[in-house]
Amino acid sequence: MAIWWAIRLIWNTIMDLLVFVATLLFLKDTKNPLKGESAGVDHEHAPKRIVHRNVSLDDIKLVKKAMNMTINDVVLGITQAGLSRYLNRSYGKIEQQNQNSSSLPKSMRIRATVLVGLRPTNGIQELADMMAKESKGRWGNCIGYVLIPFKIGLEKDPLDYVRKAKATIDRKKLSLEALCTYSIAQFVINIFGFKVGGAIAKRVLSRITMAFSNVVGPLEDISFYGHPIAFVAPTVYGHPQALTIHYQSYVNKMTIVLAVDPNVISDPHQLCADIQESLTIIKDAVLQKTLIINDVV
Ligand SMILES: *[C@@H]1O[C@H](CO)[C@@H](O)[C@H](O)[C@H]1NC(C)=O
Ligand SMILES: *[C@@H]1O[C@H](CO)[C@@H](O)[C@H](O)[C@H]1NC(C)=O
Ligand SMILES: *[C@@H]1O[C@H](CO)[C@@H](O)[C@H](O)[C@H]1NC(C)=O
Ligand SMILES: *[C@@H]1O[C@H](CO)[C@@H](O)[C@H](O)[C@H]1NC(C)=O
Q1: Considering only 31-35, 38-42, 53-57, which range has the smallest mean pLDDT?
Q2: Which PANTHER family match (predicted)?
């Protein structure tokens, strides 16, 4: 068993690194309404629009518990469902103009870069300890890249969105991609300097549709110098991608934050609404299923 596990780990890591190198050299995501065209357009310095929505963390936990999965699985699932709804509508509009009946393209390569923290622990408390101790050694970023393929398509059973997300995440868990990309980045920066490192990162990122992040926040209400905090909404600026999705939990709330280049995505509120609606549909499917099971028993 252990040997089989090790073989799969090594195999997956090699495959992931090959895809990473291929992306650096030529492999682009499918042209789609969420991705800016890389040539000529500068998403790095374009103004970004930032919008957010609150959804109930309890709804996400309900799905998680009923399907025996993790919060990450559910969050990726509702995102894939939301993006599929949004893209279906976008392609629907194009289709009406063209007078033919294609819905979503059959196979699309849409990927997200996820930054994975490689520190063993990273909570608020550890951060406070780190700052208090003034230990210079542990300061700085310690993160690797992972490329997550997004499954875009309309599912008959809404729970399939979450099942497929879990399969993607389980596969990515069994790989040392983050560790390797972190080491490679360190190596490149040490040997060739920050300029080359930055150029490589920009090249890879500009071929990928979006950036994605999901961070667990405080479980209880906190305050900052006596001011109670109502919600937490992180975002980022300066990377060459037209769409960034952050999920940030805070007590019993999950905040979805989108940062978009409005030249590419002119209706970010619609995209937020699609993700929120997907959560509702998936939650309702779970409730209906448990209802049926209870009736039978
Ligand atoms: C999200 O929740 C916070 C805190 O309750 C509130 O201040 C904010 O306006 C909410 N955002 C939206 C878009 O409803
Ligand atoms: C839930 O998932 C875990 C790990 O994936 C597994 O060990 C456990 O048996 C599952 N429980 C149920 C009730 O399916
Ligand atoms: C997908 O698009 C078609 C045509 O534009 C529309 O009729 C259908 O309701 C859409 N499906 C979903 C789930 O949004
Ligand atoms: C739909 O029409 C457009 C333009 O006429 C064409 O490029 C596209 O291939 C068509 N799609 C299908 C599935 O026929």
Answers
A1: 38-42
A2: O-ACYLTRANSFERASE (WSD1-LIKE) FAMILY PROTEIN, WAX ESTER SYNTHASE_DIACYLGLYCEROL ACYLTRANSFERASE 4-RELATED
Cβ(41)–Cβ(240) below 8 Å: no
pLDDT at res. 131: 60
Q: Is the CB of 96 under 6 A from ligand 4?
A: no
What phi, psi does 215 have (nearest 5°)? -125, 135
Q: Which residues pair with 112 in a beta bridge?
A: 148, 210
* CB-ligand 3 contact for 92 (6 Å cutoff): yes
Tell me the C-alpha distance between 243 and 109, whole Å: 15
44, with CB counted inside 10 A (0-12, 13-18, 19+), is: middle
Q: List domains and CATH numbers for the chain.
A: 2-34+44-296 (3.30.559.30)
pLDDT top residue among 262 and 292: 262
Residue pair 110/152 in contact (Cβ under 8 Å)? The answer is yes
Amino acid at 93: K
Q: Give the residue, by CA position, lying nearest to ligand 3 atom 12.
A: 85
Tens digit of each residue's pLDDT (9 = 90 or more) over 50-72: 999 999 999 999 999 999 999 99
The answer to whether the CB of 234 falls within 8 A of the CB of 257 is yes
Average pLDDT for residues 65-81, to the nearest whole number? Answer: 93
